[in-house]
Design a protein that fits this description.
The structure is a homodimer. The first copy, chain A, is mostly beta strands. Helix content of chain A is 11%, strand content 40%. Strand 13 (221-230) of chain A pairs antiparallel with strand 9 (116-117) of chain B, so a sheet runs across the interface.
Chain lengths: 263, 263
Amino acid sequence: MAGFTDATSVQRADDDSFDTDLDPLWTVGGKPNGGYLLAILARAAIETAGTHPDPLSASAVYLSPPDPGPAAVTVEVLRAGRSASQVRARLSQKDRTCVEALFTLGALAAAGEPRWVDAAPPPVAAEDALFATPSQAPGTGLRIDMLDQFEQRIDWQAVGDPPGELRGWLRLPDGAAWDPVSLLFAADAFPPATFTLGSNGWTPTLELTVYVRALPAPGPLRVRQRARLLTESLVDQVCEIWDAEDRIVAQATQLAAYRMPAS
Amino acid sequence: MAGFTDATSVQRADDDSFDTDLDPLWTVGGKPNGGYLLAILARAAIETAGTHPDPLSASAVYLSPPDPGPAAVTVEVLRAGRSASQVRARLSQKDRTCVEALFTLGALAAAGEPRWVDAAPPPVAAEDALFATPSQAPGTGLRIDMLDQFEQRIDWQAVGDPPGELRGWLRLPDGAAWDPVSLLFAADAFPPATFTLGSNGWTPTLELTVYVRALPAPGPLRVRQRARLLTESLVDQVCEIWDAEDRIVAQATQLAAYRMPAS
């Protein structure tokens, strides 16, 4: 997973600040993906806290989309606890604040037999029966460069059953394994579920919250992206992620703006 | 709703700070409830932004539980936009940071016919068939003073169908109406769904995210609190809220610590 790890690396500039370089490859319509930015903030938060290696929760508000290129991350440790630390991180570019996020950090265990889980993973057609979404996806009018960096396979046959939901797979190239930080990216790597409901534009995220629940097993991720409620201009979506051993490893929710095509 | 409004009021102390008085009545085991604290932060955020009356999203990390009594709120406007503003707010007490939250503020519409919604509200027995949870609830070993301030009625007959889920009603006294800020409280006003799974202790919240999706109609709220995954020490829960006209008005998710009794 050199690609993602390199593209989300941060270099310490000061006690509480880091430099980073936003990669033009991890973009949607030329702008860095929101989950990609969250992963960069997580790396800075983890390095600053120094005690807990994994994000347990990550909640971000998206203020202003940065461009690819240099950016700065500032971090404040809010609580340094024994089993968890809590950290705030901010990404800014040219004195413009772009994203701010709150993290709970801890140490995750492998996804073993859960004490209790509410549901089994949903059915998704086999990976080799699904095509990888191209970076110039038909109907979007948008170049999604990040799709050249990983494999996203959507079960289009399953769309509509139930409505408002997209299911599929995410796989990193060269057999690279997902980890808790790249799961933050995975939680925002699917198209908006509004695609299945007549809106084919991209949806700018206002807020994204991801809970990483376990270390993922090697292999592809099974993803379900589900729209909850569409009002005039906003949609809230739930994204659930299972690892290759069918264990739930992340649960995310996002509030985004969307547009319906003029009818 | 004088009780809740008074109990969550903030008094401006400076351009970016407020004084507040944490009410001993809105507590669980003597500590102010997490949703109650989130509502206080929202009031300070809304007053500081000055342009957008409603919380659209609220995401908080809980650092250290404050005691009832005086506390301070500091606020920073991160983005002042046309359709939405984004604000960070921090609650501290005696120089200890207790809660920090990120808000997206906007103007909500009444919950009309939705463009699309993923599911109808779940069945709950009629309010008058259910008893109001007492503040000294049997089996909790905990005094939940806030339960004397509003009516919480849980459909205990429905527990187990499906497992991991609690459903019921929330009503304010004297016919008071719920509003977007008190919905932030409502999203954390139910017992943890772990009650249905063999753990009867309270669950300290690490992170709580609430999306308020519409202005609620007058009347009681229908609530579903659902556990997603229990690992060794953490549970993530989803809380959904419908108004008295069966419209979804809030969707929340929370990550909390819990303990199973020794078996």
